[in-house]
Amino acid sequence: MHTRTWIGNDIVDLGEPGVAGKELDLRFMERVFTPEERRRILDAAAPTLALWRTWSAKETAFKIASKLREGVIFAHRRFEVGPDRTGDSDGATGLTAGNWVSVWFEDLEVQVRWETALDYIHCIGRLARRGSDLAPIGLEAPRGPRRLLAGIVSNGQGLGGALTSAERASVHSTASERARLLARELMARWDVQGAEIVRMWRAWRWSPPVIAREGEPLAGFDVSLSHDGRFVAAALVGPA
Amino acid sequence: MDNAAAFEKVVGIIKPFVKNQEAFAKPSEGTRIIEDLGVNSARLVDIILAFEDEFGIEVDDESADKVRTLGDAVQMIQRKTAPAH
To answer: B58 — contact with chain A (CB < 8 Å)?
Structure first.
């Protein structure tokens, strides 16, 4: 039985160098995507958007897998993204958010969805199933309803608050600091006293960020941070 | 190829992808490609492909995943270009 809801997220700045027309880079395509994914990307009406949506789905699933498994490497083709039947990848004329799409890695199924804007793609994912589970794990199970919050801010937008010394220890850039400030803003909705967003030392490396209190991960919560170019993003899950 | 020559080539390959020029002003073997230089993970794939082209090597996913610093890149390239015995 699971005691946590696991989430991941990834943001892609569509204005970054190397983003536009990446579907024409055949070596990149072959290194990162399965033949089926490549076919779907190239068949899409907006292949560049389809490519980065698929990329962000893999990144998101990788972040979740890294929380669950020791020594997971980002071997891109091993994270297989299922078809997106929402049609979002066919246009970039405004903010859209589609249905959940599956990403498989080994015996894990992660469900992702995207927010697609003119200048970014934001992907949020949640662990949906492990091989040994018969029933899907939704946001509603197993500890009662979950609440998923996500936010995106661009370089020009101010963020208030301050990081604790433990949080600052994980900061390696302005973007990583801003991602943590954003996550703290979102976390404030739960009013959890003493909670911090930190990385913890595990037997083999530092963990991805977790919400912790007094050095222990806080049950029922998870967090995921990302940044790219002009944007930082955060996603949190906790009690409804 | 000696370490210094490999390091210089690695720095040259990575240069176009670097966001944090300040950190790149004094690159060392311990310089972290993503955290210190601000290279994003998609550009890291481009860098790995550029290593393959430049050094005539094949970099599998496991080897690519271990490249965190400039020094890691140099060591990986040295291993893969070393003459077989």
So the answer is: no
Classified as helix, coil or strand, A111 is: strand
Any domain includes A1: no
Reading across the β-sheet that carries A231-239, which strands appear in turn? A146-154, A231-239, A222-228
Residues A194-226: tens digit of each pLDDT: 999 999 877 667 788 999 999 888 988 999 999
CATH of the domain at B44: 1.10.1200.10
pTM value is 0.91
Report the CATH number that the domain containing residue A192 is assigned in CATH.
Answer: 3.90.470.20
Contacts of A182 (CB under 8 A, 6+ apart): A151, A153, A159, A232, A233, A234
Domain total in chain B:
1
Q: Identify the closest residue of chain A to B19 by CA–CA distance.
A: A229
Contact A75 B61 (CB under 8 A): yes
How many whole angstroms separate alpha carbon B80 and alpha carbon B59? 8
